[in-house]
Amino acid sequence: MVLQPASAGAGIVFVRSDITDRNNRIAARATNVNEVRLGTTITNEAGVSVATIEHLMAALAGLGVDDAVIEVEGSEVPVMDGSSAPFVKLIRQVGLKSHAMPRRAIQVLRPVMIEDDERSAGFLPALKPSIEIEISFEHASVGRQSCAFEIAPDIFSDDIASARTFGFRKDYEALLAAGLARGGSMDNAVVLDDDGIANPEGLRFKDEFVRHKALDALGDIALAGAPIIGCYRAARPGHAINNAAVRALLDDPTSWKWVSMRDVDAGAMAMAR
């Protein structure tokens, strides 16, 4: 996989470099999401897909990257260690360039919430981009956890980016039997079994589980195509409801408007004074 600079306003675009016989460009947009079972997959009109994009999208959103071309040789983004940290490290090593054009953002004007059984998710008006997540699992090592953070580069890098994906050994064995998740291991996920945390190194945070769910949420809502000035609040979220919430917001033109990040930052500073 290679990350390339892009012109202002280009957005995030994936390019399948191994496909040359048809359109191999896929815009990172919520409307292109067509699979959410084991991660978020986007597909273009030619049927070309890239899977498991959420951790990379979270890294880009967390660092404030709006425009990039991502060349991928294969159908899936590399899993790395199951978090966004490797992507954040490499992007920061290379550095970022600012465009002269002001950043555009989606400002939430009124609440947009959806529910699906015991899950709920949606956007609330707020002065800055932020995420609030709650999870609940019937496992002694997880239980009920919550996480709230402002979407800012240093906060994301220090507190969220290194939280790894997690799963239950019994579910993993069932996926293997179905021919799925063949690359999964304790090198790229936190594994839970009946005795607790199976990974010998333990957890990176005591609440690593909810932090990773917040990471996933950031990667999924980044598919709105621009930063969202508002609070994304979700209970027991997954990729499906994250995507549904973004679509619900964008489908209701009375609930948001385009703004300049310069104006938003100036307004926040004025209120702080």
Automatic annotation (TrEMBL):
Cofactor(s) the record lists: Zn(2+)
Keywords of this entry: Hydrolase, Lipid A biosynthesis, Lipid biosynthesis, Lipid metabolism, Metal-binding, Zinc
Gene Ontology BP term (one): lipid A biosynthetic process
MF-aspect GO terms: metal ion binding; UDP-3-O-acyl-N-acetylglucosamine deacetylase activity
Transmembrane segments: none
Catalysed reaction equations from the record: a UDP-3-O-[(3R)-3-hydroxyacyl]-N-acetyl-alpha-D-glucosamine + H2O = a UDP-3-O-[(3R)-3-hydroxyacyl]-alpha-D-glucosamine + acetate
Pathway(s): Glycolipid biosynthesis; lipid IV(A) biosynthesis; lipid IV(A) from (3R)-3-hydroxytetradecanoyl-[acyl-carrier-protein] and UDP-N-acetyl-alpha-D-glucosamine: step 2/6
GO cellular component terms listed in the entry, alphabetical order: membrane
Family affiliation: Belongs to the LpxC family.
Cited HAMAP family: LpxC
Function (record text): Catalyzes the hydrolysis of UDP-3-O-myristoyl-N-acetylglucosamine to form UDP-3-O-myristoylglucosamine and acetate, the committed step in lipid A biosynthesis.
Protein name: UDP-3-O-acyl-N-acetylglucosamine deacetylase
Organism (species): Maricaulis maris (strain MCS10) (Caulobacter maris)
Lineage: Bacteria, Pseudomonadati, Pseudomonadota, Alphaproteobacteria, Maricaulales
